[in-house]
Amino acid sequence: MDDELKLVVATPFKKKAATSLSIKDFEFALSFDLKWMAPALASKARDRAISTGLLRLEGNRLVPTFDVAQTDMPNGFKPSGNLFAEKTVIEEIISMISARTGKSGKEVIALVNNKQEQLGDLVDIEIAGLIVAKDRGCDTGGIYEKLYLKTFNCP
């Protein structure tokens, strides 16, 4: 799914040959130019791209954190319906690390598994993932509350 979100994010920048876009232009491209999603889902795509580190906000402009020109677009690409399915905490952590480091999901999972093993399997996989994320310079602030709620079985 991370690769799919990356393709969704890259497309408006590629189509407009731009290195930054206003929030309005980004969402308009996804909703009306490409006809991929309703405006509310375009906002959700923007928010998820920012939270996973694929986009950063500079003033009122969105800037991709990856090289859009190096993103190969498959012919006829359209995002799937499960692009916005809720992710587990560990999936969010893996996405965050992957976006920050440019490593594939498999590479990130290996890093997290290795960290958990180094800690003698005494911590949950999410905690090992948070340690790896912090070591790689990720902003993990938004994950702590979700992890707390999961740990203590809160709704």
Helix-strand blueprint:
Blueprint: H1 2-16, E1 21-22, H2 23-33, H3 39-51, E2 55-58, E3 61-64, H4 89-101, H5 105-118, H6 125-135, H7 141-151
Antiparallel strand pairs: 1-3, 2-3
Helix pairs in contact: 1-2, 1-3, 2-3, 4-5, 4-6, 5-6
Distinctive features:
Arc Repressor Mutant, subunit A; 7 helices; 155 residues; mainly alpha; three-stranded antiparallel β-sheet
Q: What features would you describe in this structure?
A:
There is one protein chain. The chain is built from seven helices and three strands. It is elongated, with a radius of gyration of 16 Å. The longest helix has 15 residues, at 2-16. A three-stranded antiparallel sheet has the order 1-3-2. It is 57% helix and 6% strand. The chain has helices spanning 2-16, 23-33, 39-51, 89-101, 105-118, 125-135, 141-151, and strands at 21-22, 55-58, 61-64.
- Average pLDDT over all residues: 88
SSE order, one letter for each helix or strand? HEHHEEHHHH
Q: Which strand order do you get reading across the main beta sheet?
A: 1-3-2
CATH topology of the largest domain: Arc Repressor Mutant, subunit A
Number of DSSP helices? 7
- Low-pLDDT runs: none
Overall geometry:
elongated
Assign the structural class, choosing from mainly alpha, mainly beta, alpha/beta, alpha+beta, or little secondary structure: mainly alpha
**Tally of extended strands?**
3
Give the terminus-to-terminus CA distance: 25 Å
> What oligomeric state is this?
single chain
Largest sheet: 3 strands, antiparallel
Strand content: 5-15%
Roughly how much helix do the residues carry, as a percent range? Answer: 55-70%
- Count of discrete structural domains: 2
- State the name of the first-level CATH class of the largest domain: Mainly Alpha
